[in-house]
Structure formats: C-alpha cells, structure tokens
Amino acid sequence: VQLQASGGGLVQPGGSLKLSCAGSGSSLRGYSVGWFRQAPGKERERVSCIRASNNMAYSADSVKGRFTISRDVAKNTVYLQMNSLKPEDTAVYYCATSRHIYACSGSQDVFATWGQGTLVTVSS
C-alpha cells in the first residue's frame, strides 16, 4: 500500500481542519491506520489510530474530545477531523499503516508504511 496525506494548512486557534490519508495499491481495510505528528525539536507522537479488525479508535489524551479518526472504505481513505485546534497542535502530521494486531496501542515501530506528511500550523 502507498499513502498520500493531505489537508494541512494554516488555521487560527479554535479552528478546524480535516486531514486525509488516501491509500493506493491495496485496500486500507485490512490495516490499522495511525495518525502521528512531529513538532520541531520534539519526538514523533501518535495522535490517533483506527484498528483494522473492528474500527475501534484510539486517541492521545492531548487530543481526546477534539480529534476524530474515521475510515471510508469506498474511498480507501482515513480521515482525521481536528476541531478546537491549539497552537500546540502545530506539527507535521503523518499517516501510517500496520498489520500488527496491537498496532494502535503498541510501539510505533510496527507501522511499516508512512505517508509523506502534511503541515498543520495553528496561529493567529
């Protein structure tokens, strides 16, 4: 599978953005798909993840209640709806896939395929 992340941009604090992770070459249905972010000078962190087997969603505490991950099988795309954005959400956002059963709660190392990243800047 190949991944194309898009939807980033500049938004004011309190605003919203919707990121897309489009898959090609293979269906994303059989993969757990995670969204990650990396801010300058910081380690990459997992933001949200949707499990392959049952579409159960996981989110980091820092984004719970604000970010929602979803999957559109027909469009072979996973989305990250981001609401109530804060300046600390500024980062490059990446999507990645894994076939590991515990991908959404385990190490990032089990994510084998990564998209190219899309920049989200939250600033007034």
Low-pLDDT residue intervals, each spanning 5 or more residues? none
Broad structural category? mainly beta
Task: Characterize the main sheet.
Answer: 7 strands, mixed
How large is the count of helical segments? 0
| Helix proportion range | under 10%
Descriptive notes:
- It is a single chain.
- The chain has strands spanning 2-6, 9-11, 17-24, 32-38, 45-50, 57-59, 67-72, 77-82, 91-98, 113-114, 118-122.
- With 124 residues, the protein is mostly beta strands.
- A hairpin with a 6-residue loop joins β4 (32-38) and β5.
Quickly list its features.
124 residues; mainly beta; 7-stranded mixed sheet; 4-stranded antiparallel sheet; 11 strands; 0% helix; 48% strand
What are the SSEs and their pairings?
Layout: E1 2-6, E2 9-11, E3 17-24, E4 32-38, E5 45-50, E6 57-59, E7 67-72, E8 77-82, E9 91-98, E10 113-114, E11 118-122
Parallel strand pairs: 2-11
Antiparallel strand pairs: 1-3, 3-8, 4-5, 4-9, 5-6, 7-8, 9-10, 9-11
Give me a quick take on this structure.
Helix content is 0%, strand content 48%. It has 124 residues and is mainly β.
